[in-house]
Design goal:
This protein is α/β, with parallel strands linked by helices and 248 residues long. The protein has one domain (3-151, 177-204, 236-244): Vaccinia Virus protein VP39 (Rossmann fold). 44% of the residues lie in helices and 21% in strands. The chain is built from eleven helices and eight strands. Strands 1, 2, 3, 4, 5, 6, 7 and 8 form an eight-stranded mixed sheet that branches. Helix 4 (63-69) links the parallel strand 1 (52-55) and strand 2 (73-77). Helix 3 (26-43) crosses helix 11. It is globular and about 50 Å long.
């Protein structure tokens, strides 16, 4: 069975419970709020008329945010079941859905002003991430904006014990398949792939569970302080926005 088939099989089964398991807990709700806050800020300087592509749109975690900002959004995913759930939860007529493999997007060169792909890169080893950078670079217009996020390896090792306990309870194994990235190395790699004007923001953090038990608003304010170093390195994920370099 190929990796594509494995992913399709896994996410076909996950589609119905994905939102509940990722965002149904108190911390999941907090993470969603912080993630949406950072994403909205990342697209704020982009006009609603810009053409936007969301790669690996899943069940609509960010499709709802993007479709509220852009007049027209193309959302693609490898798994039809995930997109079916997305259609039902997003319920907006300005979204066009396409089944697509992220490594071979069915769009011409220089097609989109903005490309967003989140909660996706953790599925792929470093060399495959490089291939994704190249493919995303291909379909973006010169000067187009890239928005992607990654699981943070620094926070992963700082919280290795609670992380192991969580995965034993959630998945009945030491850890699900996941790739963790170093923030600086990832930013440099995106620059080397033909992007500039890179900006990095931290998102979430497992330690925010503690303040969230007492006050959701206080936990959210604490989470906002993790967008920039040094607290960025405690964040569960980091989101990078960059521009496709315009040739001189």
């Amino acid at each position: 069975m190929s990796n594509d088939e494995k992913f399709q099989e896994f996410y076909a089964l996950e589609a119905g419970v994905y939102e509940k398991t990722r965002y149904g807990t108190r911390y999941g709700t907090l993470f969603r709020q912080l993630h949406h806050h950072v994403l909205k800020a990342a697209v704020a300087d982009t006009p609603p008329t810009a053409s936007c592509l969301e790669v690996a749109c899943g069940t609509g975690h960010n499709t709802r945010v993007l479709s509220a900002h852009f007049d027209s959004l193309t959302a693609c995913d490898l798994t039809p079941e995930m997109m079916s759930y997305n259609r039902g939860s997003t319920d907006r007529d300005n979204v066009t859905y396409r089944q697509a493999n992220a490594f071979e997007l069915p769009f011409p060169d220089n097609s989109f002003d903005v490309l967003v792909s989140t909660r996706f890169f953790h599925l792929f080893a470093w060399h495959d991430q490089q291939r994704l950078f190249a493919e995303f670079h291909r379909v973006l217009k010169p000067g187009g904006k890239l928005i992607v996020d990654f699981d943070n390896i620094v926070a992963r090792w700082l919280y290795v014990i609670p992380h192991v306990l969580y995965n034993l309870l959630r998945y009945q194994r030491l850890a699900p398949f996941s790739i963790y990235n170093f923030p600086g190395k990832t930013r440099d790699s995106i620059t080397a792939a033909g992007f500039d004007q890179t900006v990095m923001n931290g998102v979430g953090g497992w330690h925010l569970i503690a303040p969230a038990l007492f006050s959701a608003q206080f936990a959210f304010r604490c989470g906002l302080k993790h967008q920039r170093p040094p607290l960025l390195y405690l964040a569960e994920q980091f989101l990078i926005s960059a521009r496709k370099t315009v040739a001189a």
